[in-house]
Amino acid sequence: MRIAALLFAATMPLMAAAPPAPAPDAPAAPVWEAKKVTPAAKEVKAQNYVVAAGDTLSHVVIKTGAGADAIIHTNGLAPPYRLKPGQKLQIPAGRYHRVGKGESGIAIARAYGVDWNRIAMLNHIDQGNLLREGDRLLVPSVREVSVMSLDERARAFRIDLDDLVTGTEPALGKRAKPVAPVKTAAKAVPDDQPIAAPREAFSGRFAWPLKGKVILAYGPLANGGRNDGINIHAKGGEKVTAAADGVVRFAGRYPAFGQVVLVQHGSGWVTIYGYAQRLLVVRGQAVKRGQPIVEAGASGAANEPQLHFEIRDKNGKPVNPTDRLPSDD
Asked: Comparing 47 with 31, which gets the higher pLDDT?
C-alpha cells in the first residue's frame, strides 16, 4: 500500500501573514460529511442527439440526463463548447448522479459504496474542479459495484490523501460563487461553503517548510510501498511553514498521519503537511510563504518527530519535492 494511502472562480488577494493562532482540533464530523447524499443515480441509455436551435451543452445535459464531461469527451468537444443546430452528438450510456447543493465528492462516493478516486477518474476531476449543484456525475455501474470484493468494498470507505485533495469541497449552488479566504485562524470557513481557489499564476517553485534532514526519501520503499513525498526530521513542537502562498483547503485529523494541512496554490499546485501535533491554521485561511501553519509532532516506528511533506502538480500527481525545493537550503 502506498504511504500516501495510509494517511478548486475568483479569490480575493492573499492577505499578509498574521501572528499564528492555535486552531481547534478537527470537528467531530469530517468536512466531507457536512451534507448527506442520497444515492439516486439514473440510468441513461446510449443514444444519438441532434442539436436543436438554441441548445447549449447545459440544455443537452438536462434533456438527456448524461453528464457534461461524458458528452464532451465522447464527442471531442472543445471550449467554449458551442453547439450548432443539426450537430449530432453521441450520448454515452451510464449511471449518472445529479449533484445536490453542498454535496462533496467523498460523500457522493460513499453513498454508492465506491472509491471517490474512481468517480474522479470517470469524470476527469482534479483539484482545480469544483462541483456545482445540477452537475451529472458518471458513477460506476451496478454491475461494477456488484462484483467488488469485500476488500475493495472496505477500501472504498478509506480516505486517502488523493481523496482529501479533490473530494472534500461541497458543491456550489447553481448561481453561487465560492467564498473568499479568511484572514486569520480566528474563524474557519463553514464546512458547507466551497472556498475560492487562488487565481494567481505560480511557477511551482517552493520553499522548504522545515529545515532538517530528509529521513525518508520520495519514491519506492523497501517494503514494497511508496512514499509520495519526503519525511523531514523535526523537533517536537517545531514550527512548520507554508512552502508558498495559498489557501488552506483542509486542516484536520487524519488517522495515519496525525493532523494534516493541505494548501492549494496558484496554477493548481497543492502541498500537504502531515504528522502535525498542533494546527495553526483553519480551513479557508489565506497563508503566505514562510507563515507557520502547524507544529511538528512525533510519529513513525521510533516515535521520531518529523514532517511528512508532499507536492501535487496541477494534475493531482505527486512529484518529488526535492526537485521543487531550493538545493542550497
From this structure: 47
